[in-house]
Design goal:
The protein has about 325 residues and is α/β, with parallel strands linked by helices. The protein contains 11 helices and 10 strands. Strand 1 and strand 2 form a beta hairpin. Helix 1 crosses helix 8 and helix 7 packs across helix 8.
Length: about 325
């Protein structure tokens, strides 16, 4: 009944600015690192109001150790005859094209998809993404935590096979529909972020499928690199201290980043370095500025920023500040 009331209300006042279609996505992977691979993918296509149009699922041969089999359940034998990512890239693209990519912790799914397309020397036809964690925060849902199972339970959606891409995508699609309608009913701005495809990839040979690691120290594999010159030289400028409101950034300032960004994080960090700023991997009392799109999150950097009184700005404001960075003071 609650969903019926939300449907009636949203039909009468559906926000004109909302997207015309969504692709609810889940991918299972060999791990969480930058050189890990997709082993299965699922897409539920939804219309503008969250109704399911169709769904699609595929296994993907990652051409290496399948990683945490105890999580996704996909062994080397099961994946050996599966298509390679380039073989399914076209079909995957047709499922994504012209739609907002929706996922639970969307930055992860988008990053994995973007990297697979970069390896295949293609671009994923995705321009915006929506994270259901961010949407649940916008809606103020009373969740104990932001796990998919908690979101599903809130909307009465039954999980059948957790960490199976097709079932996770189904669960998310069923939980997203009432979330979307609640947002439309209350006039909530959807937390859409820009997706920028990756274009750089250099691969180093990794173990092929079938060489499954036993988990010992000898089971590692060489990593690839997304931007071959990731090691940056030390910032040549002294730290001038904290950033002050309504004043420009100054070369040498220590900048930390936390959470999801619409511009690929490495590219954003590169822009900061090119402007003469020091990109810090952690936050301390010496940090000049924290950049985050979610200042209310409980990440360690956000918590420390509150403790230390470190200034915080969002990505858009940081982009404006990067346009006019003051030169470092002469020694």
């Amino acid at each position: 009944m609650l969903e019926d009331r939300m449907t009636a209300a949203s039909e009468a006042s559906w926000p004109a600015a909302y997207p015309q279609g969504y692709a609810v996505v889940d991918v299972e992977t060999t791990g969480l690192a930058r050189d890990d691979r997709i082993v299965s993918a699922a897409v539920y296509r939804l219309d503008a109001r969250g109704e399911v149009e169709d769904h699609w699922y595929t296994l993907v041969n990652p051409e290496r150790d399948p990683g945490p089999v105890w999580i996704h359940g996909l062994t080397s034998d099961m994946l050996e005859g599966a298509p390679l990512f380039p073989d399914i890239a076209e079909e995957f693209a047709t499922r994504l094209e012209g739609r907002v990519l929706v996922a639970h912790n969307a930055v992860f799914d988008w990053s994995m998809i973007a990297r697979e397309y970069a390896r295949a020397e293609r671009e994923a036809p995705v321009r915006q993404r929506l994270c259901t964690i961010a949407l649940s925060k916008e809606l103020g849902l009373p969740l104990a935590n932001h796990k998919l199972e908690s979101l599903a339970a809130h909307f009465g959606v039954v999980q059948r096979r957790a960490h199976h891409a097709l079932d996770d995508a189904r669960v998310l699609a069923e939980a997203f529909r009432p979330s979307l309608r609640a947002a439309a009913r209350d006039g909530v701005r959807l937390p859409l972020l820009e997706c920028r495809p990756l274009t750089e990839w250099s691969d180093r040979s990794a173990p092929r499928i079938g060489r499954q690691s036993s988990g010992g120290s000898g089971g590692g594999y060489p990593s690839g690199s997304w931007r071959p010159s990731r090691k940056r030289p030390a910032c040549p400028y002294p730290n001038p201290g904290r950033h002050e409101p309504n004043k420009p950034l100054k070369q040498g300032m220590r900048i930390a980043f936390s959470g999801d960004t619409s511009v690929e994080r490495d590219l954003l960090e590169d822009r900061a370095v090119e402007a003469g700023l020091h990109v810090a991997t952690s936050l301390s009392r010496l940090t000049s500025l924290l950049v985050t799109n979610d200042p209310d999150s409980g990440t360690s950097k956000v918590v420390k920023a509150r403790q230390f009184g470190t200034p915080v700005v969002d990505e858009a404001a940081f982009g404006q500040l990067l346009r006019d960075v003051e030169p470092a003071s002469e020694a």
